[in-house]
Amino acid sequence: MEAGIVGLPNVGKSTLFNALTEAGAESNNYPFCTIEPNVGIISVPDPNLTVLQDHIETEKVLPATTQIVDIAGLVKGASEGAGLGNKFLSHIRNVDAILQVVRCFEDGDITHVDGSIDAIRDVETIETELMLADMQVVENSLQKVKKTARSGDKDAIRRQALLEKCEACLGEGKPVRSLEIPDPEDQKEMKSLALLSAKDVLYVANVGEDEVESGNAQTEALAGYAAERNSEVILVSARIEEELSELEGEDRQEMLESLGMTEPALHRIIRGVYHLLGLQSYYTAGPKEIRAWTIPQGATAPQAAGVIHGDFERGFIRANIFSIEDLQSFGSEQAIKDAGKMRTEGKEYVMQTGDVCHFLFNV
Q: What is d(CA 326, CA 314) in angstroms, rounded to the nearest whole number?
């Protein structure tokens, strides 16, 4: 799983990136502080791994991970060369989701490129630039494919029809993700185009330190905007998250309690991305390692096995599965077996969140 952070300059993107990845990216009060894209790996917070480790002795624990890409701030006209952000859009073309950081706090000491705070205006600026960049891609692709389509090539004809549908959508000022594309072949084609406005968006509202729980008028407007687009908003103080990321153990817990928070907001962000993309985790556990694996919701047991290795999927025989809840109830894998709670599932089984699996295969 990979997510790209976008937003206007000076909205807190790099500060949030530092909090998420503890990478120490440069963060200052001037536009285009980020020049080269920052890339970091995040471990997905997962309490189930703690449960597994409490009950199964192992040498190491490997959480699921996601890669985060932070690019230069985008400004109005970026798709036509204004500012610097357009140079780095290629770095987020292949991400799975976009985290759009939106400034929702007032601070006279931190400049705003448009001179005032307006969450909806800022979101629409970014959305427009992504769509304009996509229009360039679509128009260029259409020019190339039309020549082949005129020869009667079926694949080219299909591609041309899809591109024309995208062109019409973008021409109406709508992101490509608003299109309904039921055909599986067209869905594959869409993915290969890597259009920015086709990606799902999670809005991250950067608020003042005293507004993380309550929000403000800007976050309320943003929540309404997101809801109309089947998305959601997560409130975060990037500055608080950065401070929390520098603390460990009891010190971090004390700061959370002092702020009335039960967990860092970055946990909510990562869960938000998981929900947005329709993902879930399952686990393998043994004496050498306990590991979380990321799969789409609705994946079958063979598909889940294939995430580990293609041979596991091709030669899948069956899966022996127990749940995290059963492990908590019975205390060990052997006790689960003795109680008759270890399940044997075949090729049609649809994986459930919290499944712990042993796969049997033969290639």
A: 29
Q: Would residue 278 be called left, alpha or beta, if left means φ above 0 and alpha means ψ between -120 and 50 degrees?
A: left
Q: What pTM was computed for the model? A: 0.83
Total number of residues shown for the chain: 363
Q: What is the DSSP letter of 350?
A: B
Token pair belonging to 130: 């992504």
Tokens representing 322 are: 């127990």
Of 114, 20, 14, residue with least CA distance to 73: 14
| Residues in Cβ contact with 346 at an 8 Å cutoff, skipping those fewer than 6 apart | 301, 318, 319
Structure tokens at 256: 């959370």
For residue 162, give the amino acid letter: L
CA distance 321 to 335: 14
SS (H, E, C) 129-193: HHHHHHHHHHHHHHHHHHHHHCCCCHHHHHHHHHHHHHHHHHHCCCCHHHCCCCCHHHHHHHHHH
From its phi and psi, is residue 256 left (phi > 0), alpha (psi between -120 and 50) or beta? alpha
Mean pLDDT per 10-residue segment, the chain (363 residues)? 85 83 46 58 89 96 88 63 58 87 85 83 92 93 92 92 96 94 91 92 93 93 94 91 85 88 83 86 96 96 96 96 96 96 97 95 88
